[in-house]
Each structure stands twice: as C-alpha cells, then as structure tokens.
Write a structure and sequence with these properties.
- InterPro entries: ABATE, ABATE_dom_sf, Znf_CGNR.
- It comes from Alloacidobacterium dinghuense.
- This is CGNR zinc finger domain-containing protein.
- α2 packs parallel to α4 and α3 crosses α4.
- By secondary structure, the chain is of the alpha+beta class.
- Helix content is 46%, strand content 13%.
- The protein binds zinc ion (ZN).
C-alpha cells in the first residue's frame, strides 16, 4: 500500500481515532490527489477546494537539527493529533507536485495490475515502473513465458 511505501506508520498509539477513520480519510485524499493529477495532466482546471481544505489542517513548525558540531539541518515537524493533521503532509506533497512538477514526467506505471503513477526523476527519463519490484516481476514473467514456449 502506498501509505506504507511512503513511510507512513500505522496510527500512532496515543491517538483515539474512530475505527477506519484514517483509512476513509486517506482514500478520500487519494481520490482528491488522483483527480487533481489527472486534471493537471490533461490540462484541465484542477479542483482546488478539497485539496485546500486538507491543507487547512496542516500544523507544523521547524526545528534545527545538528548533523555535527558545524553542520545543521532545518527539519519540519508536523502535528498529527487528528486524522486530517496526520494526512495533511501528504496533501502538502501533492500541492508541491502540482505547483512544481513537469507533468510530462508524471506517468502511469507499466506494472501489470498496478494503478500508480510516478514522477520520473531519472536522467534518461525512460522509467516505466513505480518500483523496481515490478521490473523484476515483469522479467520473471517474460522468462517463464520463454521457458514455456521452448518446452512446447
Ligand atoms: Zn507500479
């Protein structure tokens, strides 16, 4: 699931969210993001209201972290007390994509049964899968088919 792949933990144990609330909201945000990306990709008007509603829940502040005695890094810390706050950083990422990305490089994954899109940051700009795992599966399927054909 994309939430796990993107490094989202399960709900923090200190929260008392109703059952399924995070999943419902995450699916809602996924739909909003999908619609916005599809609209942007096909140069249609992007529906902004729902995405901006999500962004309205974003509460964050910066902290300074020491990498060493002379190196520092600015880090953003997000408040995640509600389901909306927990997902708001994802909405922020979607917003950054919509405002900065080259949408010729936003493509559908060619993995069988994969519904994801990815942003191709490779130098050659010829990436075809959202994850190397799909390339591996594809190669295995091709090898299996080749073996099956030879044994016929
Ligand atoms: Zn994929």
């Amino acid at each position: 699931m994309w939430t796990i792949r993107e490094g989202f933990r399960d709900t923090p144990s200190s929260t008392t969210w109703p059952d399924g609330a995070l999943l419902r909201k995450a699916r809602n945000l996924r739909e909003i993001a999908r619609n916005a990306v599809e609209a942007r990709k096909s140069k249609k008007t992007i529906p902004l209201e729902e995405l901006n509603d999500f962004l309205g829940h974003l509460v964050s502040h910066c902290i300074l972290k020491a990498k060493s005695r002379i190196e520092f890094r600015l880090e953003r810390v997000y408040r995640q007390k509600t389901v909306e706050e927990y997902l708001a950083p994802v909405a922020e990422s979607v917003t950054e994509l919509l405002s900065h990305a080259d949408f010729d490089l936003v493509r559908h994954c060619e993995g069988e049964q994969c519904v994801l899109r990815f942003y191709d940051r490779t130098k050659s700009q010829r990436r075809r899968w959202c994850s190397p795992q799909f390339r591996g599966n594809r190669a295995k399927v091709a090898a299996f088919r080749a073996r099956a054909k030879r044994s016929r």
